Every structure is written in structure tokens, then in C-alpha cells.
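Session log. Operator J.P. requested a structure for one protein chain; no other inputs attached. Running the standard single-chain path with C-alpha cell output.
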Amino acid sequence: MNEKEFRNNVAAQENEPLFFKVQGTRVYPNPAPEDGGGQDIGFGHKIQPEEYERGLIHGVRWKGGITREEALTILSFDIKVHEGRARNKFGSVEFDKLPKAGQQLLTDFSFTGTLNSFPKLFKAIKERNIVGVLNNYKRFFRYRGKLVEMHRRNAFAYRLIKELVDDGYFK
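Structure written below.
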């Protein structure tokens, strides 16, 4: 999947089903669903202290709300940041050798803040072990003390895994 398709799929996993139903709608910060999650805006962007101070996120003024297009601009920057984190965590040489779907899968895990929680998944990807990948890709988060599966996010991860299978990545 190309970068724009990936970005649009990440957006669909985040707040898009809840926001931007009407053309020209602006969205404002809202409490992040994760315990201690601070505030999100757009497609899951966690507003950082310096962004509160400046009133800017990647060059976008956000305090008066943002449009869908502005949210997509922020998301594109966020994806690049998380791709870098995934590359560093997985190992840049190994990451760069992965098919695009594998890179996007790891980037998505970084985007959801779960990058450090899946060492068995990383090992299985490095070993090209499809059984290990399928046994270790599902994500959950705590909401009001309960463990909740990230259904849409897991379905998206499965789609990327399927692309890896279709591309012949696994042994």
C-alpha cells in the first residue's frame, strides 16, 4: 500500500469514524482514551507541552480547532516520526530490508504506542515465522480499568500481515 493509502488507513483506525462526517467540520482536543493519555486532536495526535505553548503542531495552528485536511497534515508528520521509531527499535538494516507492508505494520505499532510491548512479534517477523506473527499481533488498551481489544487496529494489522503473506515474505 502506498504512503497515502497507509495514512488514510491509519486515519480510519483513529478518530475518523467519529469526526469529519460533515464537510468543513473542525475538531478540537479531546481526552485520550488511554489511562493518563493527555489530550488527542485529529487522528490520535498526542498534544505535547511545547505544542500547547506555541499553539502549533507541525506548523498547524490548532487552538481554534482543525479541519480534516489539517489533521491529515499532522498525521503525515506523525507517521514519519513513528516510522523512525520503528526503524530504530527493529534495527535500521533489518527494517529497510522488510517489504513495505512489514515497515508499515511496525510503524502502526509505534503509532499506537505499543512498539515496546511486542518483542515476540518482532522476533517472529525477523525469523519470517507466520505462526509467531499471528499469535502475537493483537493489541489491547486499558480504558477505565478494563482491557479492551483494538478491533479496527487489529484488523488493519491483519491486512498488512496478509500482504506480507501474499508477497511471499514468510517461510
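Operator note: The chain has a mean pLDDT of 89.
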